[in-house]
Amino acid sequence: QVQLVESGGGLVQAGGSLRLSCAASGSIFSLYVLGWYRQASEKQRELVATITRSGTTKYADSVKGRFTISRDNAKNTVDLQMNSLKSEDTAVYYCNAYPPNYWGKGTLVTVSS
User: Fold this and answer.
1) Phi then psi for 44, rounded to 5 degrees?
2) Most buried among 13, 18, 36, 81, by the most CB within 10 A?
């Protein structure tokens, strides 16, 4: 069992930056594939970025070159550095640990244009 708690969301102007952090507790953090997902209003949840145990990363095309995912297995954290934010990045961002699929409660990111 893994508990995930996100932090770092907020209101930022377009072009600005935010850093999201997810703190995990419970089972062995290093075993999981970790990810960030987001859900905008009236839209389905979508993948933003994932990072494997060995550090291999994957990004949605919409965030490539702007967002960076990282993990610290010693601290049990996974972060998402978001730069050059756009209004379409506005969403609730969720931390995920897989398998099987643990989710945090989410943190709201609002980008004003």
Assistant:
1) -80, 155
2) 36
Q: What is the pLDDT of residues 9-29, one digit of tens each?
A: 999 999 999 999 999 987 777
β-bridge mates for residue 5, sequence order: 23
Q: What is the pLDDT of residues 65-107, one digit of tens each?
A: 999 999 998 898 999 999 999 999 999 999 999 988 999 999 9
Distance between CA 10 and CA 89 in Å, rounded?
A: 12
For residues 72 and 92, give the distance between their C-alpha atoms in angstroms, rounded to a whole number: 23
List of residues 6+ apart from 42 with CB closer than 8 A: none
